[in-house]
Design goal:
With 426 residues, this protein is of the alpha/beta class. The chain is 34% helix and 22% strand. The protein has 3 domains: 122 residues, Rossmann fold; 187 residues, Dihydrodipicolinate Reductase, domain 2, CATH 3.30.360; 69 residues, no CATH class. The structure holds nicotinamide-adenine-dinucleotide. Nicotinamide-adenine-dinucleotide (NAD) binds next to helix 1.
């Protein structure tokens, strides 16, 4: 197969992950052009993916002026830029791999859906978990009829302490006021999408949600805590604090590309002294996690009734100790449960011989597709996208724009319900 010629818009963390999967891991993609107002990102794209200097642009207008000269785009800009930076490329006939969430308001969501349909182009929204071997297996089991009709899907997302801090308390998604996305939209649009995809024969009917910012608050800061860990927080307090910036970012930085972004330096090049200085002064990751002004909820539960009488619930907790996701699917003939980070599913049926149950474990942890981030989802998504752009058929994981829109509307309705305090009709 010829390599798919690709234009990358927004060459940050996520877009480069997809470019890497497409070019280096799958060998199916070529990055021929890129757009980013940050020139250092364009230089990185030249170095990493051999993008010709003439095809590196600082604005989408410069790329649009060339007309359609690649097969597709990867759009990895931040949430509020997804729609304005995608619409003009759809008009030029580009297929699009678009980061989730599609956007952060309903008007833009429907505008993009209509534009995608009108253009006839494919818009793949990056609901990567669908493409992981674990969730694909759940979908296959449901489609096989082995557990009968779906009665209830229960999902739970545990957001570990590090990820909570680096993304949702001190990081880019800490404030709905600033970045426009709620916790449910930024983090759990994956889970709500999974629920809609796994229960795809049914339409959401009513949703009720509760949640709040109740635990990671100034009132719950450890007694005597300061405002910046390395500046005015006593060592005795920091020794007991799970969010201590020293241990979290300087000693064991799990996702090093996040906390140093604000310094403008590549995380592979920034020195220890520069890190310390940033945490002491301007870096939001140096602030007390309890007092740094974020406004998104730190826990939320969503309950959905579907039009065929089936149900789903989803819960998320920030500051969990073990990061990961659980799923339980109750069917009329059997049930499935498992944890994605263990890569194992248990399928159970009623046992007439004992009036108890029998079970079997399906282990997908050794699946070659499990490689890479999101339990293999990133690679699976790019493989499907490339295959579809090349004219191949959609896989069971593939998302049509209508599917993505439905899941995201459900996120908006759930947040509306949480804010109003009563159930909302879909
Ligand atoms: N699928 C997932 O699981 C997943 C995980 C994390 C983040 N995300 C989503 O991915 C998206 C990108 O997140 P990220 O962490 O990679 O962000 P990032 O900040 O690393 O990358 C965004 C890039 O867009 C560039 N940019 C800004 N304005 C632009 C413009 N007008 N035109 C072109 N480029 C522009 C920035 O300079 C930056 O390089 C977000 O929408 C985020 O919610 C998805």
């Amino acid at each position: 197969m010829d390599k798919i010629s690709t234009l990358v818009i927004g060459c940050g963390d996520r877009a480069t992950v997809y470019a890497n999967e497409g070019c280096k891991e799958l060998g199916a993609m070529r990055i021929d052009a890129c757009v980013d107002p940050d020139v250092s990102k364009l230089e990185l794209m030249q170095k990493e993916f051999g993008v010709p200097a003439d095809n590196c642009f600082t604005s989408i207008e410069q790329a649009l002026a060339r007309g359609r000269f690649c097969d597709c785009i990867i759009n990895g800009t931040m949430d509020d830029l997804h729609v304005p930076t995608t619409l003009p490329f759809l008009e030029q006939g580009y297929d699009v791999l678009l980061e989730k969430p599609v956007c952060n308001n309903e008007k833009d969501l429907l505008t993009l859906r209509d534009a995608a349909k009108q253009s006839g182009c494919r818009v793949f929204v990056c609901h990567v978990l669908r493409y992981s071997p674990f969730y694909r297996k759940v979908k296959e089991l449901i489609l096989s009829g082995e557990i009968g009709e779906v009665r209830h899907i229960n999902t739970y997302e545990h957001v570990g302490v590090f990820l909570t801090s680096v993304s949702f308390v001190r990081g880019k998604w800490r404030s709905e006021r600033e970045c426009g996305s709620s916790l449910l939209l930024a983090k759990c649009s994956h889970d709500i999408d999974l629920i809609c995809w796994l229960n795809s024969g049914a339409k959401p009917d009513t949703v009720f949600s509760t949640g709040g910012r109740d635990f990671i608050t100034p009132e719950n800061a450890p007694a005597g805590a300061g405002t910046r860990c390395l500046v005015d927080c006593p060592q005795s307090v920091r020794d007991k604090c799970i969010f201590d910036a020293q241990t979290m970012y300087l000693d064991n930085c799990l996702l090093p590309w996040y906390p140093w972004q604000c310094t403008g330096k590549d995380y592979r090049e920034i020195t220890y002294e520069e890190k310390v200085e940033s945490l002491k002064t301007f870096n939001p990751h140096g602030q007390c996690a309890y007092k740094c002004g974020g406004d998104i909820v730190d826990h939320q539960t969503v309950s959905v009734r579907f039009d065929n009488g089936s149900y789903a619930t989803h819960s998320v907790t920030l500051g969990s100790f073990r990061d990961g996701r659980d799923i339980f699917v109750a069917g009329t003939l059997g049930e499935i449960d498992g944890r994605v980070d263990e890569g194992k599913l248990t399928v159970r049926h009623y046992d007439r011989g004992t009036s108890w149950y029998n079970s079997r474990v399906i282990d997908v942890s050794a699946d070659a597709d499990n490689a890479g981030a999101h339990f293999g989802g990133d690679r699976g998504l790019v493989r499907d996208f490339v295959n579809t752009v090349a004219g191949g058929a959609l896989s069971i994981s593939a998302s049509t724009i209508d599917d993505s829109v439905r899941g995201q509307l459900l996120v908006f309705r759930a947040d509306e319900s949480m804010k109003k305090g009563f159930p909302v009709k879909f």
